[in-house]
Amino acid sequence: MTNATILIVDDEELIRWSLREGLKEQGYEIVEAGTGREALDQFKHGADLVLLDYRLPDTDGLSVLRELKKLDPDVLVILLTSLVSVETAVEAMKLGAYHFANKPFNIDEVAATVSRALETTRLRREVRQLRENEARPYTLRAIVGESATIEALRQMVAKVAASPASTVLLTGESGTGKDLVAKTIHYSSARAARPFMNITCSALPEQLLESELFGHERGAFTDARMQKRGLLESAEGGTVFLDEIGEMVPALQAKLLRFLEEKSFKRVGGAADIKVDVRVVAATNRNLEEQVAKGSFRSDLYYRLNVLPMHLPALRDHAEDVPVLTAFFIDLFNREFKKRISGVSAAAESLLKGYGWPGNVRELRNVVERAMLLAEGDRLEVQDFGALKTALGNGDPFELPPSGVSLDDLERSLVVQALRRAGGNQTKAAALLGLNRDQIRYRIEKFGLTATP
Ligand SMILES: Nc1ncnc2c1ncn2[C@@H]1O[C@H](COP(=O)(O)OP(=O)(O)O)[C@@H](O)[C@H]1O
Ligand SMILES: [Mg+2]
After folding, report:
1. How many CB atoms are closer than 10 A to CB 21?
2. Where are the beta strands (DSSP E) in 116-159?
3. Would the CB of 180 count as within 6 Å of ligand 1?
4. Distance 72 CA to ligand 2 centre (A)
5. pLDDT tens by residue, 184-204
6. What are the φ and ψ backbone dihedral angles of 436, each rounded to 5 degrees?
7. Tens digit of pLDDT for each residue in 82-119?
C-alpha cells in the first residue's frame, strides 16, 4: 500500500524528522503531530496508520490510542516507547495496538513493521469490500414473488433476521430457494458483517464432516497433524448454514444437539469447552418427521431445530408467481448477457404457467437462461422454450413402475379422483380426463361407481 498516509505523533522534533525521512523514502505521505490534541485533529483528516509516542506533553499514548479507536476501530497504531511495564503493554494490546517499536529504534525495522501493518489494513478493507459485494444481492427484495405464500415468507424472514440467535429450519424441495433464504436471513440481520459459513452435510464422510464443523486438536486422528478450527469457530458472530441436515449421521446429530443446547462444544480430540455465538440455519428437502418416525433422525434434534420452521413452497403451488419470477430472471440475464429482451409472448407465458416445474425456481431460472441465449428477437417466444415443450409433450406423462401396473385399477382410480376433484360434476370430471359425457358415464357404470358423491 504505497500512497498510504502515515501520522507520526511525537513531541520530539528529531524523532519525527528521522521517521519522516525514513518513511518518505518508501513512498508514504507523512503528516505529523506533537501532542495528543493535534494527533486527534490530524487524524480526522484521514490516516491509514499511526505511529504514536507513548509519552506526550498533554496526555499519554494509551488515552490517544483509545480515542483513535473510537474514531475508527480498524485503525492500526504502532506505539513508540522506550520502556514500558508489562501492564502497560498488556493494556495497549487490549486497546488494539498493532505493535510496539522500542526506542531507540532502527528505521529499517520500523519501515518493515509499517509495511506489514499496511498490508493488514489492505486485507481488512478487501475482506470488508468482498463481504459487502457478497451481501448486496441478499436483501429481502431478493426473494421474488407476489403470492400470499411468498409475501408471508418474506415477512417471516424479516422477523427471524431481527431475532438475534434463534435456530431456523428450512424445508422445501430442491430449487425452492433454501440457500437464498438462508443468506437473506444472515445478510439482513445484525450478523451481516460477520461470516456466513455453509456446509452440505451429505458432501463429506462422517469423520471429515465432524472435524470440518467442530475442528480438531493435533493428533486427534491419524491425519490430524495440526490443530484446526472448525466452521463453528470461524463463523463466530455470524451464521452457519447446514444444508441437507437430513443426511447427517446420528452420532453427529447428537453432537450438534449438544451444541445447540449449550452453545459450546469440544474440538475432536479436545477437552476444552469452546463457546461461540453463531446462528444455525439448517435445511433439508427430506421429510424430517418421516425420518424421525423411521428412526434415522433424532427426535430431540428435530424438535430443537423445529422451533422456527419455514417451509418453502414448490413453484407449482404458487404458479401465479411464474410471470414475476420470469421477469426477474430476464432482467438478471439481460445484464449478464448484455441483451435487451423485453419479456415473453402471451403464448409463452401460458406455457410457463401451465408447466409443473419439478425443479422449481432453479429450473425456471435455467429455462429462462437457455431461452435468452437462443432468442433471436427481443421477446421470448414458445419456440425459445423448446426444451420445455419436449418435457411437456413428448415425454412419457406417467412412468410404468418396474413391477408393472393394472391398467384397470389405474383407470378406475383416475376416474374416482377426477369425480372427487370435480365435486361429482360429470362434465367437469370428463374434461379432466379428456373424455366426453358418454365416455365417462360408461366408465362410472363399468366400475360400479355411484354417479353422485
Ligand atoms: N423466490 C425467489 N426469488 C428469486 N430467486 C429465487 C427464489 N427462489 C429461488 N430462487 C433462485 O433459484 C435458484 C435456486 O435456489 P436455491 O436457494 O439454491 O434453492 P435450494 O437451496 O432450495 O435448492 C437460485 O438461483 C435462487 O436464487
Ligand atoms: Mg440448496
Report:
1. 11
2. none
3. yes
4. 38
5. 999 999 999 899 999 999 888
6. -100, 175
7. 766 777 778 888 888 888 777 778 888 899 999 999 98
